[in-house]
Each structure stands twice: as structure tokens, then as C-alpha cells.
Write a structure and sequence with these properties.
Layout lengths: L1 E5 L4 H12 L3 E6 L9 E4 L7 H4 L4 E4 L11 H13 L5 E5 L26 H14 L6 E7 L2 E3 L9 E3 L7 E3 H14 L5 E6 L2
Parallel strand pairs: 1-2, 1-4, 2-3, 4-5, 5-6, 6-10, 7-9
Antiparallel strand pairs: 8-10
Organism: Staphylococcus succinus
Protein name: NADH-flavin reductase
InterPro entries: NAD(P)-bd_dom (IPR016040), NAD(P)-bd_dom_sf (IPR036291), Polyketide_Oxido-like (IPR051606)
Length: 204
């Protein structure tokens, strides 16, 4: 199995790359600038410059791209569409890191986390942009996608426990470390449990 991590220099991307390398997988970091990851195989290109040929060698592509700039939030949709088009109609799988805002907080699935009164205002624009990408990828039956959401409190400095729990669409916990999330991403890359589905990762 060959795995590519797009935006591998980022916080999530770097830890997913590290997790995959430590598990002796064939990993390539796709980065715009100088490679800062532990991966020895590198494609140095802007995400929008990637071609079908660039991604053709890989069985799984992890989309770890993120954008918090409120003036560039449309890039969530634009980058996802670009990557989706590149793997359209193939057996390749696209694993997308999404946000927690689109998760439901009620059993009836009528209230999303982003719409609750206590959701921080400063994070709403990003959460809404990521919620939009989930709705967009759900329309793509030509792509073997998996959308993966972290728990609401996504802890970069959190410890790696090596364990986690998952839900399909609901908030079932408060936090998860980036390291445990990375393990869940690599587990999904290997196992392919959630094809054309979303799941969320929480501390166990």
C-alpha cells in the first residue's frame, strides 16, 4: 500500500505521516515548501498544481489541508474538489480531515455542534466551511472518500494513548489528541472501513 499525505507539513499532516512511517508503510509527503516531516519520499508541489499523474502511484491519499484565514475559507471546497477530481473514477481512496462542527449533538440529528449556543464565534466560519465540504463530498459517488472529524477539543499537545473511540455522526466525547487521531487515520487507510462515509474520533 502506498500512501500520500497532502499538506504533510501541517500539524495533523506531520503526525499522520509520522504514524504511517513508524508503521512501516510506504509514505510520501506532499508539501508546498521544504519537507519538514520524517518521510523520505517527497513531492514538492502546491496542492492546486497536483495532477492525476502525481497521485497515480498512491492507493490512499490523505487530505490534511486546512485553512483558518477567514478570507480564504473557500479553499476548503476548492482544494477538496481538485483532489476529488484527480482520483475520480479510480480505486484510489481519499481520506479527508474535516472539523467537529458538522457533528450532531442530538439523537434525532437535527442540531449540529456549530449551531449550538456555546460554539465559539471565532471558530464558526471555519466550521461552516468544513461543514460545506462534507455536504459537497457526499454528492461525489465517483470518489472513494472518507471524511474524518476530530472531537471538538482537538489537542495538539495531547498524549498518544494508542486508543480511541469512534462515532458515525454524533458527538460522543469532548476531546482527542492529534496523535491518537493520526492513529485512527492510518488505521482507516489500512482497513478501509468507512468508504463513502464519515466517522469521528474521540479519546476513549
Amino acid at each position: 500500500m502506498k500512501i500520500a499525505v497532502v499538506a504533510a507539513n501541517g500539524k495533523a499532516g506531520s503526525l499522520i505521516t509520522k504514524e504511517a512511517v513508524e508503521r512501516n508503510l510506504d509514505v510520501t509527503a506532499i508539501v508546498r515548501g521544504k519537507n519538514k516531516t520524517v518521510a523520505s519520499q517527497v513531492v514538492q508541489k502546491d496542492i492546486f498544481d497536483l495532477t492525476k499523474e502525481d497521485l497515480a502511484p498512491f492507493d490512499v491519499i490523505v487530505d490534511a489541508y486546512g485553512q483558518a484565514d477567514v478570507n480564504k475559507l473557500d479553499e476548503h471546497s476548492k482544494t477538496l474538489k481538485h483532489l476529488s477530481d484527480l482520483v475520480s473514477g479510480t480505486n484510489q481512496r481519499l481520506l479527508i480531515i474535516g472539523g467537529a462542527g458538522s457533528l450532531f449533538v442530538d439523537d434525532a440529528h437535527t442540531i449540529k455542534l456549530v449551531d449550538t449556543p456555546d460554539f465559539p464565534e471565532q471558530f464558526k466560519p471555519t466550521a461552516q466551511a468544513q461543514t460545506k465540504t462534507l455536504e459537497e463530498i457526499k454528492q461525489r459517488d465517483d470518489v472513494n472518500w472518507t471524511f474524518v472529524s476530530p472531537a471538538p477539543d482537538f489537542q495538539f499537545e495531547g498524549e498518544k494513548t494508542g486508543d480511541y473511540k469512534v462515532s458515525d455522526d454524533e458527538v460522543i466525547g469532548t476531546s482527542v489528541s492529534y496523535a491518537d487521531f493520526a492513529k485512527a487515520m492510518v488505521d482507516e487507510a489500512i482497513n478501509g472501513t468507512y468508504i463513502q462515509k464519515r466517522f469521528a474520533v474521540f479519546a476513549k
